[in-house]
Amino acid sequence: MVSTISAARERVQAAAERLFAERGYKAVTLRDIAQELGIRQASLYYHFPGGKEELYVTVTERGLQAHREGLEQAIAGAGASLEAGLRAVLQWLASHPPVDLARMLLADFPAISEEHRKRLTDLALDCLVRPIENLLQAAQQRGEGRPVDTRFAALAILSTAEAMHANARLSGKEASDLVETALPVLLQGLCA
């Protein structure tokens, strides 16, 4: 019985995670999630008694943790150069659905409780921004690149990855095919 409950809960989380990622918190209803799964809306409360917000927080936490693990592994396996680290970060982000951190911070998080908003904001920083900040700080300590605000640069890198996904949709390419296009823009800027 426990494995059936776990499997059902996992199906709910997977469907909710995909819908929230595609549309954002405000645009997704429990009815949408139930329809996606072919179940009654009331059944969702069995797994998530706190409703939509509890479900959103759960899947967002899970997704952010997965991103942290993936980014940290990509960076650790990339080698010591800034270019290799950035390539690994961009490849990892390109090979996963876009995070849309700006939408999360500007639209999704303000629609949930203060407690959850603060927790998810802190988690987003820990999971998405800090691994990239650490990469950039290590490169600066090695004398690679010029001194920059590493928080701003990390957010710019995340935005670049989201732009790769947008460009892929517009061009019909894969986001991972755009890593070598994005990398020189990040490393050298627009003016050489």
UniProtKB/TrEMBL annotation:
UniProt cross-references to InterPro entries, sorted A to Z: Homeodomain-like_sf, HTH-type_TetR-like_transc_reg, HTH_TetR, KstR2_TetR_C, Tet_transcr_reg_TetR-rel_C_sf
Pfam families with a match to the protein in the record: TetR_C_24, TetR_N
UniProt key word Transcription regulation: yes
Keyword annotations from UniProtKB, A to Z: DNA-binding, Transcription, Transcription regulation
Gene Ontology MF term list: DNA-binding transcription factor activity; transcription cis-regulatory region binding
DNA-binding region residue numbers: 29-48
Keyword Nucleotide-binding: no
Domain HTH tetR-type: 6-66
Stated name of the protein: Transcriptional regulator, TetR family protein
